[in-house]
Specification:
The complex is a heterodimer of chains A (234) and B (345).
Chain A (H helix, E strand, L loop, with lengths): L3 E10 L2 E11 L4 E5 L6 H9 L4 E8 L2 E2 L5 H7 L1 E4 L11 H6 L8 H10 L1 H5 L10 H14 L4 E5 L7 H16 L3 E5 L3 H7 L2 E6 L2 E6 L1 H5 L2 H8 L4
Parallel strand pairs in A: 3-8, 3-9, 6-7, 7-8
Antiparallel strand pairs in A: 1-2, 1-4, 4-5, 9-10
Chain B lengths: L2 H26 L3 H26 L6 H19 L3 H23 L4 H21 L1 H4 L5 E2 L4 E5 L2 E4 L3 H24 L1 H11 L1 H6 L4 H27 L1 E2 L6 H14 L6 H16 L7 H14 L3 H16 L23
Antiparallel strand pairs in B: 1-4, 2-3
Helix pairs in contact in B: 1-14, 2-7, 2-8, 2-10, 2-11, 2-12, 3-4, 3-5, 3-10, 4-10, 7-8, 7-10, 8-10, 11-12, 11-14, 12-14
Chain lengths: 234, 345
């Protein structure tokens, strides 16, 4: 069964339509990148899937469950993780509190050990307010917080944005590791090289709709499409 | 001595002073001041109920007087009609206030910001007028009086609120228990959820927190605190009146909480203490003393937005920075013992 199926999804911000019929698929264990220039509707697509943006048409289903009828606080329990743009930390809460916030009961020691093995900096800063961490550390915490909830799909919104270059490769490595563990990933990314390196499949967006679908290899071989929709060259 | 240790010592000294009030205070001032301190302790619970909502969940309620009034009548009516003792009356007052909060909260916490503040005022006004018009039961504006029940009896030993010291220590015990429970809650996973909802309710929902349920629980618990305050006040005055359900009583509690420091456990106690002592000292010589209370509130909001407790905390941080670190750490003041920071098994 398709992990995430989006069909003709439409949404407005106020009266302005921002999504004009987005359709995409994420299969189990697959990493899919959603690319496009600023303001084409990538973040809005993620927000509409989660119900944070009011959907005006179309459907979004996750493992066969129509997300229309699912309250936002139940998405995590369904296995749908989300790391928003800007990391979505609770800056006044400690690292430990941020990590365990969504859990009911005692954290799974194996998962916690795994998270600390991947992100040893977090273990060193457990009692520190999350707002005092660097951008890269906050991104690690956001990923770790998602992982402790045992998701089967993670939606990542620009995970390498605003992070110092030496930490970008670590974040990229961790996303790759997440995918290798069979967790599906829907990645919104401005960094084309990062997206092409991580993704199995790529969607290009323009003006609130999907305009192109390709494998990374096919897109690399098609510089005119890259230039037309992203305004850059590899 | 580190800033944390100074705060701990200050807290122990403060607790010691509260315990010594009935013994030491009459040596220096009129015993009347023992009752004033007891009154501060009682009212501080109403401010604490505002604090639980405003400081920990981010909801500004102008309706806590409703639950104060329900707690007051729960205690008074249970003594009058059922012959309840102090503890029975207190329990009825708290449970009645929590039930009322459970009913009002089921609607109120669906709203936030000014809509929430307005609906809490509306609920408060509806019940205020209902209580005023149900004179045969509530006594309306005149209220109802009752004789003081016993607090404890064993053989020939009988402790009654008629004794000023027994009354003071009974109030201190109940108030301390309420603050202890409040502290346990805000340090528990539920308290962390309260703060996450306060910081960003959408983010909180996306990590799996049921924002409505979290706010609802806080509202009911805050109702219980306000109810405990009302029940204690009924026993303190041997009296219950619908006039205490009016929203200006809620407004005063909001001011006490803000001046003391919303978001800190004991802040509202200090805010209530400062403003009630101020009232007692100034109101006898100047009837327009509320102008000064307003000025104090404005100054606190402008120059110490986290209230007296926040100002104390900032002062302690300054002291901490000026002192050479005893044990060098990368993050002084934030480190906790390793046992506190372990996760999982």
């Amino acid at each position: 069964m398709t992990a995430l199926a989006i069909d003709d999804l439409k949404a407005n911000i106020g009266k302005v339509p921002v999504l004009r019929g987005v359709s995409l698929r994420v299969e189990p264990g697959e990493t899919v990148a959603l690319l496009g220039r600023n303001g084409v509707g990538k973040t809005s697509t993620l927000r509409a899937i989660l119900g944070l943006l009011k959907r005006t048409g179309g459907t979004a289903s996750y493992n066969g469950v129509n997300l229309e009828s699912v309250a936002p606080h139940k998405l995590a329990a369904l296995g749908l993780g989300y790391v928003p743009q800007g990391r979505g930390m609770f800056p006044l809460l400690t690292v430990k509190e941020n990590l365990t916030l969504g859990l009911t009961g005692t954290p799974d020691p194996e998962i916690i050990a795994d998270v600390f093995r991947r992100f040893p900096r977090l273990e060193e800063r457990l009692s520190q307010p999350a707002g005092t961490l660097s951008g890269g550390e906050q991104q690690m915490l956001a990923l770790a917080r998602c992982l402790v909830m045992k998701p089967s799909l993670i939606m990542l919104d620009e995970p390498t944005e605003g992070i110092m270059p030496k930490l970008v490769s670590q974040i990229r490595h961790e996303i790759d590791e997440i995918a290798k563990r069979g967790i599906s990933v829907l990645l919104v990314e401005q960094n084309l090289r990062t997206a092409l390196r991580l993704a199995n499949r790529v969607y290009l967006m323009e003006r609130g709709t999907i305009v192109h679908e390709a494998t990374p290899a096919a897109l690399r071989a098609d510089p005119s499409t890259i230039h037309r929709y992203l305004g850059v060259s590899l | 001595m580190t800033a944390t240790n100074i705060s701990r010592v200050a807290l122990v000294v403060f607790a010691g002073l509260l315990l010594a009030v009935p013994v030491v205070m009459p040596m220096f001032v009129s015993p009347f001041w023992i009752d004033i301190i007891a009154e501060i302790l009682i009212w501080s619970l109403l401010a604490a109920s505002v604090n639980l909502l405003l400081g920990y969940v981010g909801l500004l309620s102008f309706g806590q007087a409703l639950f104060f009034g329900v707690g007051m009548y729960g205690a008074a009516l249970s003594v009058i009609h059922w012959g309840a003792d102090f503890w029975g009356g207190l329990a009825v007052g708290i449970v009645a206030a929590m039930l009322m909060a459970a009913i009002a909260g089921s609607v109120a916490v669906r709203l936030t910001w000014h809509y929430f503040a307005i609906i809490t005022v509306v609920f408060s006004l509806i019940l205020y007028f209902a209580a005023m018009s149900a004179k045969p039961i509530t006594g309306g504006d005149d209220g109802i009086s009752f004789s003081t029940p016993k607090v404890f009896s064993f053989g020939d030993l009988e402790l009654s609120l008629a004794d000023q010291s027994v009354q003071y220590y009974t109030i201190l015990l109940v108030v301390a228990a309420c603050y202890g429970l409040f502290g346990l809650i805000v340090r528990s996973p539920l308290g962390v959820r309260f703060m996450a909802v306060r910081e960003n309710d959408r983010r909180a929902a996306l990590v799996g927190i049921n924002v409505y349920l979290t706010r609802y629980l806080a509202f009911v618990l805050a109702g219980g605190l306000a109810g405990a305050s009302g029940a204690l006040f009924a026993f303190f005055g041997r009296y219950a009146s619908a006039s205490y359900m009016f929203y200006h009583v809620s407004g005063e509690a909001v001011v006490w909480a803000i001046v003391g420091g919303a978001g800190s456990l004991l802040g509202p106690l200090f805010g209530t203490g400062l403003l009630i002592i101020f009232r007692e000292l100034i109101s006898t010589v100047w009837e327009h003393y509320l102008f000064v209370v307003g000025a104090i509130t404005v100054l606190v909001v402008m120059f110490a937005p986290r209230g007296l407790a926040g100002a104390w905390s900032d002062f302690m941080k300054v002291i901490g920075r000026n002192k050479p670190a005893e044990t060098p750490t990368s993050n002084p003041g934030l480190s906790k013992p390793a046992a506190d920071t372990k996760l999982g098994g």
